[in-house]
TrEMBL record:
Taxonomy of the source species: Eukaryota, Metazoa, Spiralia, Lophotrochozoa, Mollusca
Keywords recorded for this protein, A-Z: Disulfide bond, Membrane, Signal, Transmembrane, Transmembrane helix
GO molecular function, one term: signaling receptor binding
Gene3D superfamilies associated with the record: Galactose-binding domain-like (2.60.120.260)
Tree of life domain: Eukaryota
Segments passing through the bilayer: 1003-1026
Protein name in UniProt: VWFD domain-containing protein
Coiled coil regions, renumbered to chain: none
InterPro entries in the cross-refs: Dev_Signal_Modulators, Helical_Vwde, VWF_type-D
Domain VWFD positions: 407-600
Signal peptide: 1-21
Cellular component, GO, one term: cell surface
């Protein structure tokens, strides 16, 4: 390794010397001046016949550029006349071209007729050409004049008006091993001129999108060689992309280098590429349509054998790259695939792509969307076909029906139900229920199950009652399932995706509030979840969590919604068998009780992940760039992720991570070699500790009238509650009714906050869904702006101030509602719980910490103490790092491994694995208990169960050297991995030719160093000589150097 580094350093120094010497040398950087073949002095333009003068203002950048000569044609150094050199006002040079090499000289260039306008130019003679520094002309039509051309007569005739045609030309491979292929070529078709006296030569000029500059000018050739004038990849097309207008002109010559005849009329512009047949489509909300495209030219394919008459079939791809609609939930998405595979043999057929409007539950739809498309070629396809961007297609969306608007379904407190049709009823029996279900016409299912358990026991005199509360939800979109289970007996609490097979169900957390979540279905329907906790000290030994739920329907729910939420259109309570049970609320609620076999809370992960996938009518894809790889479209769509799928403000909502779910799926797909023999099962003991935010059940004894008065005063003490009464579809009366019922039922105020917060949440959602409310005013003030500025969760619990809708908590308090004492550390149950505390370094880049009451605040910190361990379990602690925790939910965070770990490539001489003991704090002061994560490389490291203890082993056929897995027999210069000699160090190969002990032979290093010094010295001398030759000289014709330095002229 030491020798290799020294040699690489030497090569770098040599390259550096060469680059310094060649830096800014115009002999290497000069480019060709456009339209060089038309700048001959002998070529005169005729404005009457449609010739367009060259104007170098279009081709030369300010202040000027270096250009090189072509075919030995130097700049003309005698006076020219009007309309010579392909322009109206030609520019000629005063003086001559220097004969000596590598000297930059100054010259003056004159604009005809009288040299009143002149430019300071520079010349340098290179090996076999000359380079010119040409300033940008001050006006049009001025152009620099080069070359005189052959003496002779210019033809005074031209061809008829040409037309552009295309054909596929068979092209042999560059080597015998390469296959032949078809290549697209454009032909400038015209009728050859008959001249009985002279041989006619034809020169074709190709233009793209206009007739100002050529993309390719052929050589002047006889008609037998006209294929040489074709426009193809190697003659200019490879430098551009298709979806262009191509045209051509023809000039005649009597001699290939003689003066040209007049230009033919330009051909009609031919559009070459692929274009949409329509630029605008109209669809109804939540509906789909088909976009049509048409190719105007074919594309070529490879031949299996050079002598085959026809090539093999091949395909190009037309892919969707729709804009990223991150700031809004609506968009246009592909159905089935993110594009279209176009078959070579069907290139001239109409191509179609199905797209669908992605709906949400906002009242007004976005009117117009853009659809962007571009091409992707097969491997080795012609580059001008690749990445062709098509004209934008506009999708105009029109509103559908309005029956779903102004509707919501609620489950509040213990739980009080409100159906979509605004029917109020009670559902206070324990069990799991279908809260909402939607099955679309092709069988795709959206479903929400809610779990109800005892939460608050009340006994007052002879009165006793057990309240039931919602403590869990399971949301399903086809084969994707998200679960929040904070019910008694669930250890640990579950908070995350149990299945993300299709990635179409998305969950968002309110920024800075770890108790507020939104779940979004692909149909546009959404579920809002608010977490609360209560503490019944008279009956339970720990807190009870309650979930306040609101479901907001979309147009997709019309005629399809079922469950406890009922129908969107009708004020009826219908059971699963379509029986109307409006007359019996108890029978209705029990009819939607979920059987154990269908209970998503009780299903295994395997069962949940086996749910049917989405059928094609709703198989949507965002198609972000780069959407494709190697010109293929993936059959399995995974691009419908949180980005662009969710109705949210980026500053207010954050996507809940799916990394644990993704990793779970990936583990099932991995090969055996990337797995561990033993995965420990982490046992978590339930914590009987009360959360600081839990609301105590304060016993009271009120009459109905007293309860109503208390509830009215309590509700109206909230400024946001009062302001929300001016927002339509919010029901302050219902919130007070629920408050009264709960006080009378529980003889306490433990549930009083729930209906108030539910009413506020519904108010904020109504503002978000109905943008017309943003302009409603009262007393000169916009109501929505006022509400958004004062609506804080829980009125900040008396421990903070509401500022612009966000609680600014007092010292020692945190959480979205300032209800949690941040001096009390969060609970940590486990690190990398699903993998038994193991982290495979090939796939695992951070630690996933499971626990409870993690707060989304700047003080969230992971204290990570690194350790190493031997194979037999002996460990020792190393350095400790503090890194910011990345908040995901109330129950899990991410702790990135410190940089020192990612940079560390080796362990100590006796360490076999490393890991971290991780503790978490909400204020970077008070930390939880620490839990360990073990970092291994599944390539060669394995785990064992030794009498119930976790131990580590080296897999057969590997060495483990300096922290890396090395297969047996791998050689590294004079060393190799030899498991028979030493599994943990390199084995020295003494018998290998040229291998000697390094400590006995360092003379070669001294020799190399001396050689380096010598080469550097030679390079510096060479640079000094070259620098002298670059000095600028000036002769008697010259003007001062344009860069301000005058120099002597030397002939």
């Amino acid at each position: 390794m030491e020798r290799k580094r020294i040699i690489q350093s030497l090569l770098f120094l040599l390259q550096l010397n060469v680059l310094i010497a060649l830096k800014d040398d115009p002999c290497t950087t000069a480019k060709n001046l456009p339209n060089f073949e038309l700048r001959l002095k002998a070529f005169k333009i005729d404005l009457a016949r449609g010739d367009r003068p060259i104007c170098d203002r279009y081709f030369i950048k300010e202040p000027g550029e270096w250009f090189r000569t072509v075919d030995g044609n130097e700049m003309v150094n005698n006076r020219t006349t009007f309309f010579e050199c392909g322009t109206q006002y030609s520019i000629y040079m005063q003086g001559h071209v220097p004969s000596s090499l590598n000297r930059v000289v100054n010259r003056t260039a004159c604009v005809i007729p009288s040299c009143t306008t002149k430019y300071n130019i520079q010349l340098k003679k290179c090996s076999n050409f000359t380079v010119y520094y040409l300033p940008r002309p001050s006006s049009c039509d001025q152009a620099y004049c080069f070359g005189f051309g052959e003496n002779g007569i210019a033809p005074n005739i031209t061809t008829d008006k040409p037309t552009v045609k295309y054909e596929l030309v068979k092209s042999a491979g560059k080597t015998a091993a390469e296959l032949s292929e078809q290549k697209l070529a454009f032909k400038c078709h015209f009728t050859p001129v008959v001249d009985g006296t002279n041989i006619i030569y034809y020169k074709v000029f190709w233009y793209v999108n206009d007739h100002t500059s050529t993309i390719f000018a052929s050589q002047a050739v006889p008609k037998e060689r006209l294929p040489e004038t074709y426009l193809r990849g190697e003659t200019g097309l490879d430098s551009i992309k298709l979806n262009i207008e191509i045209s051509c002109k023809v000039r005649l010559y009597y001699h290939p280098k003689g003066p040209p005849g007049p230009s033919s009329e330009a051909s009609e512009k031919f559009f070459a590429g692929i274009k949409p047949l329509k630029r605008a489509y109209e669809i109804s909300r939540d509906n789909s349509t088909v976009i049509e495209f048409k190719l105007t030219v074919p594309f070529g394919c490879m031949y299996a054998n050079h002598n085959d008459p026809y090539p093999l079939p091949c395909k190009h791809t037309l892919s969707l790259t729709t804009p990223d609609y991150l700031k809004c939930s609506q968009g246009i998405y592909a159905v089935d695939m993110c594009g279209k595979l176009i078959e070579s043999r069907k290139w001239n057929e109409t191509q179609t792509i199905s797209i669908k409007h992605k709906n949400d539950n906002n009242y007004r739809t976005i009117q117009t969307f853009e659809v962007h498309t571009e091409t992707k070629v097969r491997i080795n396809g012609e580059p001008f076909w690749d990445g062709v961007e098509l004209p934008t297609v506009f999708i105009n969306v029109i509103e559908g029906t309005n029956k779903w608007k102004n509707k919501k379904c609620e489950a509040v407190s213990d739980p009080h139900m409100t159906s979509f049709a605004n029917r109020h009823y009670e559902s206070q029996e324990p069990g799991t229920y279908t809260l909402y279900r939607n099955k679309d016409p092709v069988g795709n299912i959206n479903e929400i199950q809610m779990k109800v358990t005892p939460c608050n026991y009340v006994k007052y005199g002879n009165y006793e009652h057990m309240n039931q509360c919602t403590c869990g939800i399971a949301a399903r979109a086809s084969s994707d399932v998200y679960v929040i289970d904070r019910c008694p007996g669930t250890v640990p609490f579950y908070f995350g995706f149990k299945s993300c097979v299709e990635d179409i169900l998305n969950v968002m957390k309110k920024a800075n509030d770890e108790h507020d979540y939104e779940i979004h279905f692909p149909s546009g329907t959404s579920l809002d979840v608010r977490l609360n906790s209560i503490f019944d000290k008279t009956h339970f030994t720990s807190e009870r969590w309650t979930l306040e739920l609101q479901i907001h329907p979309s147009i997709a729910d019309e005629g399809r919604s079922q469950g406890l939420c009922g129908s969107v259109e009708k004020d009826e309570l219908i059971d699963p068998n379509n029986v109307n049970l409006t007359h019996d609320e108890y029978l209705f609620t029990q009819s939607w009780r979920v059987a154990d076999a269908d209970n998503m809370f009780k299903m295994t992960l395997e069962r949940l992940q086996s749910f049917p996938k989405t059928r094609k009518a709703r198989d949507l894809c965002i198609c972000e760039k780069p959407s494709l790889s190697s010109g293929t479209i993936k059959n399995t769509l995974t691009c419908t992720n949180a980005k662009g799928r969710i109705s949210c403000d980026k500053d207010k909502m954050k996507p809940v991570q799916k990394d644990v779910c993704y990793e779970r799926h990936n583990r099932r797909k991995r090969s055996v070699k990337h797995s561990f023999t033993f995965t420990p099962k982490i046992v978590i003991e339930p914590k009987l500790k009360r959360s600081k935010r839990a609301i105590s059940a304060n016993i009271t004894n009120m009459t109905k009238a007293q309860a109503k008065t208390w509830c009215e005063n309590y509700m109206n003490s909230s400024p946001a509650f009062l302001a929300c009464q001016d927002i339509p579809n919010t029901n302050s009366t219902r919130a007070i009714e629920i408050c009264v019922m709960d006080i009378l039922t529980t003889n306490s105020t433990v549930f009083a906050a729930a209906p108030r917060e539910s009413m506020k949440a519904g108010c904020l959602k109504e503002i978000a869904r109905n943008d017309t409310l943003l302009n409603v005013t009262k007393n000169g003030e916009k109501i929505a702006d006022k509400i958004l500025s004062i609506a804080c969760p829980g009125e900040c619990s008396g421990h903070g101030v509401c500022t612009k809708g966000v609680c600014q908590c007092n010292d020692n308090f945190g959480g979205g509602d300032c209800s949690i004492d941040i001096n009390e550390p969060p609970e940590v149950y486990a690190v990398n719980y699903e993998t038994g505390g193991l982290c495979d370094k090939l796939f695992c880049k951070e630690a996933i910490v499971d626990g409870d009451l993690f707060l989304d605040r700047s003080g969230l910190t992971c204290k990570m103490q690194r350790f190493e361990m031997t194979m037999n379990g002996t460990s020792w602690d190393l350095e400790t790092s503090h890194v910011p925790g990345s908040h995901n939910t109330l129950s899990d965070i991410r702790c990135k491994f410190p940089r020192s770990h990612s940079k560390r490539s080796t362990l100590s001489s006796i360490g076999f694995i490393s890991g971290y003991k991780i503790a978490v704090s909400n204020n970077n002061k008070n930390f939880s208990e620490a839990h360990a994560v073990y970092i291994l490389d599944s390539t060669c490291q394995d785990t064992l169960n030794v009498s119930g203890q976790l131990r580590f082993a080296l897999k057969p056929g590997f060495c483990f050297i300096h922290g890396s897995c090395v297969p047996d027999g791998v050689q590294k210069k004079c060393y190799e991995c030899d498991i028979r000699q030493n599994k943990f160090e390199w084995t020295y190969r003494e018998t290998e030719k040229g291998c000697t002990k390094e400590e006995n032979s360092h003379l070669w290093v001294i020799g190399v160093v001396l050689a380096v010094l010598l080469l550097i010295l030679i390079g510096l001398v060479f640079f000094y000589i070259l620098k002298k030759k670059h000095r600028v000289v000036q002769d008697s014709y010259g003007m001062p150097n344009p860069h301000g330095q005058a120099s002597k002229y030397s002939k």
